[in-house]
Amino acid sequence: MRKIVASVSVIFLLMAASHSALAKGASSYASANNGVGIAVGDPGGITFFHKLDERNFIQAFLSQNLLIGADYASAFPNAITAIPELTPFVGGGAFFFKFSHSYYGRYDRYGYYKSGDEFGIGGRIPLGLLLQVPNAPVQFHVEISPSILVIPALYSFLDAMIGVRFLF
Fold it and tell me: Angle at the Cα of 158 (from 105 to 107), degrees rounded to 5?
């Protein structure tokens, strides 16, 4: 039931964002400051985007099992001259989540989370690419993030995700 409610919510948010972006006109897509979308991978789920200026932005994600995170990132527009719509970025961020032993078993290789009701806090360094689709309110993103779990124990890992956002 929760998956159905989450899916309907995402569809509603994407439709609202798309309608808002279409109302702006094709010439202003690159100047859209906000976005909402979906991503697959780890962390996958609902993603949010807010452009602070031409180079800096904040992205956040909400995933299954109460995984919440946010990153501050700097983009490097025009770094790839062959494809001007493709923009690399690097950032830093944090995440918080409630462990579910069945899903987060990869963190349990030392037996820290046997009860399955632990909370975790960590940091990540997202390295990725943004692709702004010309004349459309759509942004694709892909990233790989070296990450470290700090609480309740140290554990390093690598996350990767790919997604799409509708800009408004």
Answer: 20
